[in-house]
Design a protein that fits this description.
Layout (H helix, E strand, L loop, with lengths): L2 H5 L11 H24 L6 H12 L7 H8 L3 H14 L2 E5 L7 E5 L1 H17 L9 H20 L2
Antiparallel strand pairs: 1-2
Helix pairs in contact: 3-6, 4-5
């Protein structure tokens, strides 16, 4: 390498593929990192990560009854895993089940007050542990960033 090349600042963006792929790739890396951190923080608590994710799902529309198959579809997870997690949550009282009047084989699941409280406690633990993540960001930067993420999530939801 020439002396002039050694003094130049290396810009790896020149070697990367399209912005579209880079965005998705970075989101995947961030997902792995945050999943690992969440697992470290929530393992050993009353709300391990799979249950926290289900509680999050229920909190978007807390009064709406959900079936296991609809939860599995929404979270893009295998139904047997969702069934196992739901069974644990029913046993803890985080969810309650009611017979589906249209289909005797399935049940509607509902979030309980205990489930809401468990989610609040787990979320408080995560927020405290991750409080430095966005230090140095201005509020408008966070709002703009969230807007872009929401736009991407909406597109992906609508184009499964």
């Amino acid at each position: 390498m020439s002396a002039s090349r050694e003094n130049e600042k290396y810009d790896r963006k020149e070697e990367l593929s399209s912005s579209d792929f880079r965005i998705i790739s970075w989101i995947g890396i961030i997902s792995q990192q945050t999943d690992t951190k969440m697992r470290q923080l929530l393992d050993g608590t009353d709300v391990p990560p799979p249950q926290f994710m289900l509680l999050n799902h229920f909190l978007h529309q807390p009064e709406e009854g959900k079936t296991v198959s609809k939860i599995a579809w929404a979270l893009q997870q295998p139904q047997p895993g969702i069934t196992k997690t739901v069974a644990k949550m029913l046993k803890k009282g985080f969810l309650r089940a009611e017979e589906n009047p249209e289909d005797g084989r399935s049940k509607f699941l509902y979030l309980t007050d205990s489930g809401k409280k468990a989610h609040q406690q787990a979320q408080a633990l995560l927020e405290a542990a991750l409080s430095d993540t966005f230090s140095g960001w201005r509020e408008w930067e966070k709002k703009d960033f969230f807007g872009f993420l929401d736009k991407l999530k909406t597109y992906l939801d609508e184009n499964r």
